[in-house]
Amino acid sequence: MIVFAREPIFTENGRVFAYQLTFRDGIGNAFASSVAEHNLENSQTNKVSWTELLEGYQSIISVSFSQLLDDIPEDLTPEDTFFEIDTLEVNDDALINRILDLKKVGFRFVCSDKKRINDLTLKFVDYVKVSMNNVAPMDVSNLRSQTINPQLKIIVTDVQTHDNFDRCKPLMFDYYQGFFFLSRKDKPSKDLPASRLAMLDLISELAKPELNIMRIKSIFEHDATLSYLLMRFINNPMVNKSHQIKSIKHAITYLGEVMLRKFVAIVSLTHINEGNTVELLQVSLIRARFCELISSHKGDKQTALTSFLAGLFSLIDVILDRDIQELMQKVTLAPEIETALVDKKGELHNMIRLCIGLESAHWASTFASTAELSVSTEEAGDYFLQAIRWANDFSIPVSKDYPVTKVR
């Protein structure tokens, strides 16, 4: 079994353009000897479905030249797949003809600046990656002028903070790769809007042993957007295959307490994320489901909902751009969730840390966390894949904003 990560690549306005996929051998502490050789092979032998993993998004996959000359997996669709290759050092007719054949059917090619990108390579690639750590405005201008392809797009990598993102914008890159969206901004706004405070108050209801159903019903009935999302969700075939539900009361009754708590949490988070990239919510959903699966795996089904909420709210400080301790004064969560989010301790924190390791390709952290949780790497990788599938499916009926696919 392999472990994998997917790093988002954004447009300037925060929409996901594509995911960079990375795979590693997850057995013991052994790493794959070559990312390029193992990306395609491991994904196929371990039954990773590209369509399930990406749900219509475009993907960038590293391949070696020898791998490129082999058969391409059938479920890699040309319109959604980019192959990242090394710099072409020699005019290899067989390799160049293979690249041209793949380009004819729609595959696109990416080259990174790990080595100097020469004129030969620029003849065949559609995208070039440059690290923000070693690029200047003149470099970007030279790259564009060097190629005969007027449509060449430039992806800047290693964008890890919002400050990085802001510094890259004036250089006129086409796309931005990195986890900057998971970090807080340097200058948060002074006050939280009343609408967000109301959603934090609604989230606090989830911490109570017994839900105040009448209060929740009243909140939904007096908020047109919440009502719309609830009815959209409850009448989606994935959730409800037999009943047409037309009232808020019927919808709340039909959901049941556990699903209602989840739905209220997700919709509340959707509201307070307004103005941020939707990818923040997608990552939150993945973490929520992952933590729930780990909790169930350990036999703690009674705490599965708590684990779900811990994962879901693990980015609430980033979403609201506030210190987590400040937020805990405005929202009430279960004590074990506060311990995980504020003190970075406890089993819930270990679950979140394991998911972060998988999503960001921090393999050392991944292996350490699996040991602490007594979960095998194979199981963790499988739960992560299940969480991605669930988030892709679940997000569609929850909000019209999920997911925005195939941004060009």
Automatic annotation (TrEMBL):
A Pfam family that the UniProt record links to this protein: HDOD
InterPro entries according to UniProt: dGMP_Pdiesterase_EAL/HD-GYP, EAL_sf, HDOD, RNase_Y/CdgJ
Lineage top rank: taxon: Bacteria
Domain HDOD: 192-379
Name of protein: EAL and HDOD domain-containing protein
Protein's organism: Agaribacter flavus
